[in-house]
Design brief:
This protein is of the alpha+beta class. 25% of the residues lie in helices and 25% in strands. Strands 1, 2, 3, 4, 5 and 6 form a six-stranded mixed β-sheet that branches.
C-alpha cells in the first residue's frame, strides 16, 4: 500500500481515506456514517464521531469479517504481515492489531506523542496519524452505517483506481 493512502479531513464532519473490506472489489467506494456507538471497542472514544461521515475507497479485501471495514491509519496497527516495520525502519509500532492506541491503553496524548516521534521525518504518515487523534478522536471500533457510492475524484486521483 502507498504511504500517501492516509486519511484526511475535509471539514469537521467529512473525511476521506482508504480501507480494506471483504465484500467488494478493490476500487469500490463507500460512505461510512458514524453513529457514536461502538462495535465492541472502547465506548468512551466513539460518541464524538456521531454525525461524522467518511468516504473510503477499498484498496484491500483480505481476511476481514463480513461487514467489517479496516481503515488504513498510520500507527493504527500493522496487521498480519507487518511489512511497515521494515519499510519505516522501526519495530515500535505497537501491537499488530491496535497499534499505538493499544500500546497506549487508549490514551490520546500518548498516541499523539507516538505519532510525532515515530513519524517525525515522514510528514504524510504523521498527518494521517494526527488525523486519527484529532478528527477521529482515537476511536476504537466505532459503530457505523454504510452505503456504496460513486468514488469521488479526491480518492481516485490518489489511488489511480476508478470506482
Amino acid at each position: 500500500m502507498c504511504w500517501d493512502f492516509v486519511p484526511w479531513s475535509v471539514s469537521d464532519y467529512l473525511s476521506y481515506g482508504f480501507a480494506a473490506f471483504n465484500g467488494a472489489n478493490c476500487g469500490t467506494c463507500y460512505e461510512l456514517q458514524f453513529t457514536g456507538g461502538t462495535n465492541g471497542g472502547d465506548a468512551k472514544s466513539t460518541p464524538p464521531l456521531n454525525g461524522k461521515t467518511m468516504i473510503v475507497q477499498i484498496i484491500n479485501t483480505g481476511g476481514l469479517q463480513s461487514n467489517q471495514f479496516d481503515l488504513l491509519i498510520p500507527g493504527g496497527g500493522v496487521g498480519d504481515f507487518n511489512a511497515c516495520s521494515t519499510q519505516w525502519g522501526s519495530s515500535d509500532l505497537g501491537p499488530a492489531y491496535g497499534g499505538f492506541r493499544a500500546a497506549c491503553a487508549g490514551d490520546k496524548s500518548c498516541v499523539q506523542t507516538k505519532c510525532s516521534t515515530m513519524f517525525s521525518n515522514k510528514p504524510l504518515l504523521q498527518a494521517g496519524c494526527t488525523w486519527y487523534t484529532g478528527w477521529f478522536n482515537a476511536a476504537d471500533n466505532p459503530a457505523l452505517k454504510y452505503q456504496q457510492i460513486t468514488c469521488p475524484s479526491e480518492l481516485t486521483s490518489k489511488s489511480g483506481m476508478s470506482g
